[in-house]
Amino acid sequence: xxxxxxxxxxxxxxxxxxxxxxxxxxxxxxxxxxxxxxxxxxxxxxxxxxxxxxxxxxxxxxxxxxxxxxxxxxxxxxxxxxxxxxxxxxxxxxxxxxxxxxxxxxxxxxxxxxxxxxxxxxxxxxxxxxxxxxxxxxxxxxxxxxxxxxxxxxxxxxxxxxxxxxxxxxxxxxxxxxxxxxxxxxxxxxxxxxxxxxxxxxxxxxxxxxxxxxxxxxxxxxxxxxxxxxxxxxxxxxxxxxxxxxxxxxxxxxxxxxxxxxxxxxxxxxxxxxxxxxxxxxxxxxxxxxxxxxxxxxxxxxxxxxxxxxxxxxxxxxxxxxxxxxxxxxxxxxxxxxxxxxxxxxxxxxxxxxxxxxxxxxxxxxxxxxxxxxxxxxxxxxxxxxxxxxxxxxxxxxxxxxxxxxxxxxxxxxxxxxxxxxxxxxxxxxxxxxxxxxxxxxxxxxxxxxxxxxxxxxxxxxx
Length: 463
Fold this sequence. Notes:
The protein is built from 16 helices and 15 strands. The chain is an alpha/beta fold.
């Protein structure tokens, strides 16, 4: 398996820390609003990567955080309000009720598009002791300092700051020159908060060695990833918008705490844009997965739609393109039902297709190429139908499209339909094309797609 590592800016072979076992941490949702399909494209990346690794025989342990405190409205600085506080003010629910409501909605939406449940969903509010312990360790290691109840990370104490994003300290200092408001408690404008002093109106607060307060957003991922995956693990995923400051700060915290590299590969997914803009809850420029279901589109077709663009690239949402993907997925399921069932073994042609598919997936998740191979197989005259069934059902471990749905349902034509098919074939054999056309029209009125094949008339439910 080869992946584009944002840290090294190269496509590299995955070399696990522990033989064939992979530890993977994926940045999860901030549970103060519903997620939209732009968010879900990023979560699909981590699911696709996990499925691909498991397809190749790796044992994957995946952890995804639930941010229910500490994520501020201004992500590039320490100003602004906690997004959970905003939701409380908007909805009149308690912070715990807000978190429960939107965590469940997130799990429901991810299940709808075939995202596997991860092994652990740690909540930020349930890991405050781990965050305090890591903050104390950073102070002891000379990377952090406390001023009036707030603890800051001294970025100049970490010489490699900027290695992930390219935002070196020189660039950051230049960006701060024109700022009118810089926290006067910071030693340097670029420093960021690990622990924040709670103001008088702050709802979510905890005791700490520095007084009552709450954690910064970045510290949660460092503390929870190392708790569940150890001080060295393999892959960290997220959207490109998290590279800076979130993931850059996470590296500084984790490596500053344990004094060595923690994560081998960083994998980031591109934006899904609506009307040529990034989807964002704040702008209302969003579509939810439930909106697609209301349009008659299978949510799993959204998976196929995202596979048509390489995960690292931005892509534009188009309802027409999504409907085309929906048609393709539903037709693939029908073909599976027509192919009947799996073969006992694979011939040379089928094995060649399998090798090509595996190579595409292993080549930095080249799903556009994988879909080309899938569609070539479906139309191939050189691979018997049962072998096609075997291959596609195997590949669905990665695709996650529930390709055997129609085959499991076992659609069979009714006696009326079977009689009409027989009548049409007889008419065509006798060159009575007027009768054949009339029967075809009747079959179409029954909601069937009518196909002429060398074996005769074939019908299936029309999409």
